[in-house]
Write a structure and sequence with these properties.
The structure is a single chain. The protein is of the alpha+beta class. The protein is about 30% helix and about 25% strand. It is built from nine helices and 19 strands. The strands form five sheets. It has a six-stranded mixed beta sheet, sandwiched between helices. Bound molecules: zinc ion (ZN). Zinc ion binds next to α3.
Amino acid sequence: MTAKETLAQLVSIDSVSARSNVKIISFLEKRCESMGLAVKKFPYADDLGIEKVNMVALAGAEFSDATSVELALVGHTDTVPYDSNWTEATTLVERDGRLFGRGACDTKGFISAALLATESIDLKLLHKPLALIFTADEEVGLIGAKRLADQRPLRARYSIVGEPTSLQPMRAGKGYCLTDIVVRGHEGHSAYPVLGASAIFRAARVIGHLERIAEDLKSRLHESFDPPYTTLNVGLIRGGTAKNVIAGECRFTLEWRPIPGQPSNYPLELLQKALAEEKKLDNGFECEVVASRDDKGFEVPADSQIVKQLETISGKTAGTVAFGTEAAQMIELGAEAVVMGPGNIRVAHQTGEFVPIAELDRCVEILRQAIEFSCL
Ligand SMILES: [Zn+2]
């Protein structure tokens, strides 16, 4: 099967994160077993009780308490949902040298390339073990990869995490953190402000602090990123019940993307200091901070062997990504991890997502050379 035919099969299996990924994992399991790889599945039930599976396949090693591989290629099997008007979302369509379909770019193109690259190598010649890792629930918070990192099924020295980067190796990524903030006050008739306390006025003061914190964060630079500092955003806000009622509650989200090297909870520490000041000035002040995401960023040195090697093979200088990836979990498993794959992140998650055929084929060649370099 060619990379394109493999991709057509993968795209035909609907693996939107909300569904079980059992079907696509079965397909990958058969492909890996036919190459003689040792396969182990790590099933779990997601929050809604739906069965999800992470899978690890090994060449040149068996599963044990101390499984260790030289190189791990990682692809997530789930995709974002697709618009019901995109009738060909699960049918791979070729047009103008591009392959269209949900997941074609993010990240089934990379998975096809990883399978083809592995199939092109005489695995009996491997001196050092290779792993293929296929995860679930990446698009809904890296859940599968986080579980796998906790279960520690293997250690890896190097890892290539598939995400659409137009085949540019990416050696660092910002983290992603999210909190819900609930500010409370006391309701009352708006004609008599002294009878209540406005949660919205209080929230506005907190947001004023956050705007200053966002400015403070610009003083710590990581020049590899654009923008080169930790950014924060208040994306959603809701408060009050009526125009003539003093607001009793105001809620908003606070999201930030920490640069690697800076503790991911640093903005939260600055916020807690600001909240302590507010409490001194307003003794009824009440604000609850509920953290829901703390995904760390990652960074591999520019002179790491895997970075240098992928720069040479791809002919592209390593860069950085501003979106979340499973590289952080691979680093937890001991790896120096680089993010790279065919297709462009700007067309991922869109109706009409596609991967250029030339990039898909080029990715097979890059991964083949990377396996040879690391494992032969
Ligand atoms: Zn992805």
